Amino acid sequence: MSGYSDLLLLVVLVLDLYIIYTSRISSCIKASALQGAALALLPVIHYWETAVADPIHIFIMTSSTLSLKAIAIPLLLMRALRNVQVRRDVEPFVSLHVSVLLAGFLVGMSFWLAKVLAMPVTGTLHLFVPAAFATLLIGFLVLVTRRKAITQVIGYLLVENGAYVFGQSVAAQMPFVVELGLLLDLLVGVFVMGIVIHQIKHEFDHIDVGQLNLLKG
Predict the structure, then answer these.
(1) pLDDT tens across 5-31, in order?
(2) Minimum mean pLDDT range among 29-33, 45-49, 190-194, 211-215
(3) Is 143 exposed, middle or buried (0-12, 13-18, 19+ CB in 10 A)?
(4) What digits encode the pLDDT tens for the residues 144-189?
(5) What is the DSSP secondary structure assignment for residue 68, as one 8-state letter?
């Protein structure tokens, strides 16, 4: 039985689409925190349904994911949002309606890829691979379509979340050290981007990456 895992992964997919749909940066951060909480529960539910992992591994992954993805990183992003005094990503490179259509296409393509590619997962894990692909691709979509640097940090989080979901789908083959390495890389990346955002605000009084491209000329 994988119904509860599938339900949790459906929540992850809905939050992916919500992040691409809304222009409110605070809502994107909150949705990212909710997605982090859902991902923290995923190893527990997966273990309960399959019993294929080490309980200590499950505890480490759950506690690390909950503390970082659902609490620490969203708090850091909300603090950065207050400092830069930006509320909306009002002029994305691609309109929100087109972004939603593209996200829907990417979700469909993810299910197709999961069907045609031979992935090293058991047949009971129906949504792990498509949810991983969809979250990864939507993260890249956020990175290339949004102007505000904080929103692009959220895109980076989605990319890492997609990698995390895929890691859970092959938990029996992936040592927990590799997954903890992903979490450490994520934390360092967010800290670095937080510093960059602060410097951008200090020097240029905005965090619009489109305007920063003008400096290349």
Answers:
(1) 889 999 999 999 999 998 888 999 999
(2) 211-215
(3) middle
(4) 888 777 888 888 889 888 888 887 776 655 555 556 656 666 666 6
(5) I
Identity at 117, one-letter amino acid code:
L
Structural domain includes residue 216: no
Report d(CA 5, CA 3) in Å as an integer: 6
Angle at 77 between CA 74 and CA 82, to 5 degrees: 125
Does the residue 214 lie in any domain? Answer: no
- Give φ, ψ of 24 to 5 degrees: -80, 115
Count of domains observed in the chain: 1
The boundaries of the domain holding residue 10 are 3-209
Domain assignment present for residue 135? The answer is yes
End-to-end Cα separation, the chain, in angstroms: 57
**Quick check: pTM over 0.90?**
no
Q: With respect to residue 215, please indicate whether it lies within any of the assigned structural domains.
A: no
Backbone angle region of 86, left / alpha / beta, with phi > 0 → left and psi within -120 to 50 → alpha? beta
